[in-house]
Amino acid sequence: MLHKPIATLDDYGKSRDAAVQPPIAPSNFLAQLDAESRGDLDALGRLQQYAKGELVFRAGSPGSHVYFLQSGQLRIGQVSPLGREVILWFCLPGEICGLAEVARGGGRVVSAVACMPSQVLAVSQEQFKLFLKLHPEAALISMQVLSSRLRILGEMFVNLVSDDVNTRIAKLILRLSARYGQRSGQEILLNVPLTHQEIADMVGTTRQTVTSALSALKRQGVLSIDNHRIRIESEELLAGIAGPH
After folding, report:
1. On the CB side of 25, how many CA atoms lie within 13 Å of its CA?
2. Which of 13, 55, 155, 164 could bridge to 21 as Cys pair (CB 3.0-4.6 Å)?
3. Chain centroid to CA 212: how far?
4. Residues 129-134: what's their mean pLDDT?
5. What percentage of residues in the chain have a pLDDT greater than 90?
6. Taking a C-beta distance cutoff of 8 angstroms, is the pair 85, 3 a contact?
7. Please, are residues 183 and 27 in contact by the beta-carbon 8 Å criterion?
8. Which pLDDT score is estimated for 7?
9. Three-class SS string for the chain?
């Protein structure tokens, strides 16, 4: 059973234009394949359906398959020694998860949970290795995915140990906007719904502190929240609170 999340997510850029820059995050693997390669990959796997809250794979289980998200959304996390889940990133359609075990072997060190009804293409590790040998461009994409995830984890660690809580909250929202934001004019709507407790767990603070910080941001005209979805109304003000990267 997964425990309460506490972690952080992807990277954001170095300036007020961060939300429109290519995010440092797991890339859309499938979109980068040509039609022939995509067809070859689809032929190797089988489609699987997962309900909201259902485990796709669990930490400690054998890393026998690689998963490509077709629809829905997955949450990738790892349980800390204190028994609380650290959310590392969200997997969106077109992205790959379960990749690390292809390179290093062994069992899973993270878990993947469906945030909503989701469909994945499951490909055995042996079949995927053969696919990479026959499609070197896919091997390069895989390397880029692993590299970007390593940078995400590095940024996560630095922010957690060096920033105060208000800065961490502002940076988290900017990271989310870079990866999951939908821009409409000067505003950015985050496509990932989050509760105050989840945000608190991501930045290492309490729900009450997050509630106070978000209320202050709303009073300043920085953002609004509707149905757990954050709408950034002033990216410039938010970037100023986050400070230099």
Report:
1. 25
2. 13
3. 25
4. 96
5. 51
6. yes
7. no
8. 45
9. CCCCECCCCCCCCCCCCHHHCCCCCCCCCHHHCCHHHHHHHHHHCEEEEECCCCEEECCCCECCEEEEEEECCEEEEEECCCCCEEEEEEECCCCEECCHHHHHCCECCCEEEECCCEEEEEEEHHHHHHHHHHCHHHHHHHHHHHHHHHHHHHHHHHHHHHCCHHHHHHHHHHHHHHHHEEEECCEEEECCCCCHHHHHHHHCCCHHHHHHHHHHHHHCCCEEEECCEEEECCHHHHHHHHCCC
Q: What is the pTM of this model?
A: 0.75
pLDDT for residue 54: 96
Question: Which two three-digit tokens encode residue 218?
Answer: 């709303």
pLDDT, one tens digit per residue, over 71-115 is: 998 988 888 787 777 778 888 889 999 998 887 778 898 999 998
What pLDDT sits at residue 198? 79
Tokens describing residue 225: 């929240």
**Residue 48: count of CB within 10 angstroms of its CB:** 14
Q: Is the predicted pLDDT of residue 243 greater than 80, yes or no?
A: yes
